[in-house]
Amino acid sequence: MNHPYRQDPAFLRGMTQRRLGRRDAFRLAGLSAAGLALAACGVQGKGTAKPTSSAQAQSEVEKFWSGKAKNGHVDFASWPLYMDPKQPELKQFTQQTGITVNYKEVILEMPSWFAKIQPQLAAGQSIDYDLMIVTNGLHFEQLVQLGYLAPLDHSKLPNFAANAAEQYKHESYDPGNVYSVPWASGMTGIAYNPKYVDTPPTSIADLWNPKYKGKVGMMSDSQEIANFGLFAIGADPDKSTEADWEKAAAKLQEQRDGGIVRKYYDQAYMDPLAKGDIWLTMAWSGDVFQKNVSDGTDLKFVVPQEGGTIWTDNMTIPKTATNPVDAIMLMDFFYGPDVAAHLAEYINYVTPVPAAKDVIAADAAKASGDRKKLLEEVASSPLVFPSEQDTARLRNYVKFKTPQEQKKFESIFQAITTS
Amino acid sequence: MSRLKASLTPYLLLFPGTLWLAIFFVIPTVVMLSLSLQSGDVVNGYAFTFNWHSYVDGISTYHDQIIRSLVYGVISTVLQIVIGFPVAYWIAFKGGNRKSVYLFLLLLPFLVSFVLRTISWQFFLSDNGMLLGPLKSMGLVPQDFHILATSAAVIGGLAYNFLPFMILPMYVALERIDPRVLEAAQDLYASKLQTFLRVVLPLSLPGVFAGVLMTFVPATSDYVNASVLGGTSNTMIGNVIQNQFLVNQDYPIASALSFTLMALLLVGIFAYAKALGTEDVLEVAAR
Question: CA–CA separation, B158 vs B216, rounded Å?
Fold first, then answer.
């Protein structure tokens, strides 16, 4: 009979027996080579000093932009659902300037995007994109600290100077818009499903209400969840200290231990909310609006009275961009009120151009039927044009002075979300 | 000359495979080992310092998740054997000339992306979904009952997602059994049960062994099921590693955890091989 599983004994012996002599020498050599290889795998530091004076900053700008010319093309890295798929804005831009735009929705979340582009940027190579949209927060800070972003030449941004809302010119993550100009903002607040929640939540404390045991969604992102913990203990994230973080973490731990949290979500919280797996959750404003429009759901969004977070996605130019002049022209183009209005009509996030509101209202007056209704909704939506009351409650993310501080912060809050 | 050529041939044939392994297995492993012993941060860089702390910190912070992953891996593997063996047996012995159709049907769902399949389970098991919705409206289960966000959901997802990798090797082992061996058992007055226990089962063990190898390892290190089907207390070590690599960019601790997991899996597999006896299995198969 055939023995399909029997191995040649000589083969097995050869695999298992110790060989002596010359081969041992090879092995030793191999080990020491491996040791060398281990030591050679160090990852180089890439930190660069930030310019300290405005004169120095100005000279950085001149150094970067001198000798750069318009090339007639720009590669634009963006996020899904951040522009009408027909790209009318880009067509208009090409018509006006003759610059062609290659628009790609390649950024799905900051960590993986950062991991993808970091090696090329570190090596001083082009990432094949001249313009990319980066959320303020940890990765934005790192891109700045590592010197990967081109300093912007504001003489090339007249529309921005004229039309951007005042608060966007003093963002704490990039004061004076040295490296970035906003694309759109959103708020982190509480979304709830009125089918299950009778009394509309108004406060962060509602996320701790035992009535909603097992039906509360929280975000797994350490910055987002930390903010809500900090609001819950009455601290302002932007000015918080390590002691505040510990207190906030204890508060969040209490919520977790009480079985109130169903799950820590990365982004997929809208479906469970619509289905009733969770009844209320931390949420981003635009997601709620888009879900309601696309699926006909009736989910609600509130900015809690203690505060909500505002985050901003920003247009930035990587230092290694091959077409920076074309990219900065496109940046400025998006600050025309008409363009900003059409963009906001589609994406339903907060636009940095307040004049867009009048344009949308005027469009609504001209339109009819469903489109009119939609435009009126957009123009009056607190998610796109937040009320002054809401704006007053919005806070920025926690800022870190050193990488050690950031590591500490993450270990404090991830102990809650990943255990 | 021709003798030299003849003695070189096996090495030449091995060359592409060796090169492949060197580039895609050995180098990454060495880099990862190196990373696990480095210290620093992403802005200031990581340097090789023989920093064993990543291992100490990693294990002391995340031992719960490591143990949980191993437990989930073992339970889901056992579940797969229990579910998969009868299926493999049935196809091998009762499948007749439709065997390939059954195998195709078995594999059909697995042509769909892994993540998508898991998400469809999320839909199916949702609190008021296709399964629980009707049960709740009939009053058969309490209103606050849920399957998602429990260990059971994650283990079930793991068992489901790796099932074909368990069934196929078992099927191959069973299918190979020479019918004449079974006839011989009957000729020697063995009952059906005896034939199964003393002939079929031992002959199928190599298949089970291969199946366990192919499912236990990926199930233990998986992170998709825990993140889609799990809740707050079902985080697996795969989720932690992914988070450390991509979100925190703490490469040393992520690498140290990966190595710890690898070591534990190897120890587990060797212990299992020893207990079952790979060679014994081979011998039994050949007896």
Answer: 10
pLDDT band at A378 (very low <50, low <70, confident <90, very high): confident
Written as six digits, the tokens of A3 are 């023995």
A149: which DSSP letter? Answer: B
CA distance A182 to B41: 28
- Two tokens at A236? 């302002």
Contact criterion met (CB below 8 Å) for A189 and A235: no
pLDDT of amino acid A164: 94
Q: What is the pLDDT of residue B3?
A: 73
For residue B66 the two structure tokens come to 């490591």
pTM of the model: 0.81
Residues of B in Cβ contact (< 8 Å) with A37 = 30, 34
Average pLDDT over residues B271-280: 73
B235 contacts in chain A (CB < 8 Å): 418-419
What does the alpha-carbon distance between residue A375 and residue A346 come to, in Å, rounded to a whole number? 9
Q: How many CB atoms lie within 10 A of CB A98?
A: 11
DSSP character at residue A387: -
Number of other CB atoms surrounding residue A295 within 10 Å: 12
Q: Mean pLDDT over residues A240-246, rounded?
A: 93
SS3 A88: helix
- A410 to B248: CB separation less than 8 angstroms, yes or no: yes
Per residue in B39-83, pLDDT tens? Answer: 887 767 788 888 888 999 999 999 999 999 999 999 999 999 999
Pairing of strands A308-316, A180-192: antiparallel
**Is B254 exposed, middle or buried (CB count within 10 Å of its CB: 0-12, 13-18, 19+)?**
buried
A109/A104 Cα distance (integer angstroms): 14
CB of A287 within 8 A of CB of A270? yes
Rounded Cα distance, A357 and A342, in Å: 10
Q: What percent of chain A has pLDDT over 90?
A: 48
For residue A142, the SS3 value is helix
Nearest to A38 among B34, B249, B281 (CB): B34
Give the residue among A315, A253, A252, A309 at the shortest CA–CA distance from A283: A309
Closest CA–CA distance from residue B103 to any residue of chain A (Å): 22
CB within 8 Å: A41 and B230: no
pLDDT at A53: 65
**For residue B82, what pLDDT is reported?**
97
Contact between A341 and A359 (Cβ < 8 Å): yes
Chain B, nearest residue to A40 by Cα: B48
Contacting residues of B for A3, CB less than 8 Å apart:
285-286
Q: How far is A53 from chain B (nearest CA, A)?
A: 22
Own/partner long-range contacts of B140-148 (Cβ < 8 Å, ≥24 apart):
B144/A214, B146/A214, B146/A277, B148/A277, B148/B122, B148/B229, B148/B231
Instruction: Report the C-alpha gap between A344 and A342 in whole angstroms.
Output: 6
Using a pLDDT cut of 70, give the percent of chain A over it.
Answer: 87
pLDDT over 60 at A137, yes or no: yes
Per the listing, tokens 């906001």 go with: A344
* Chain position carrying tokens 């404390």: A205
Q: Are A135 and A224 in contact (CB under 8 A)?
A: no
Chains A, B: CB contacts within 8 A come to: 120
Question: Residue A92, class by beta-carbon neighbours within 10 Å (0-12 exposed, 13-18 middle, 19+ buried)?
Answer: middle
| Residue A41, φ and ψ in degrees, nearest 5 | -85, 10
Tell me which of A2-6, A97-101, B208-212 is least confident: A2-6
pLDDT digits (tens, 9 = 90+) for A215-224: 999 998 888 8
Q: Is the pLDDT of residue A82 over 90?
A: no
Nearest in space to A398 (alpha carbons), one of A330, A307, A332, A325:
A307
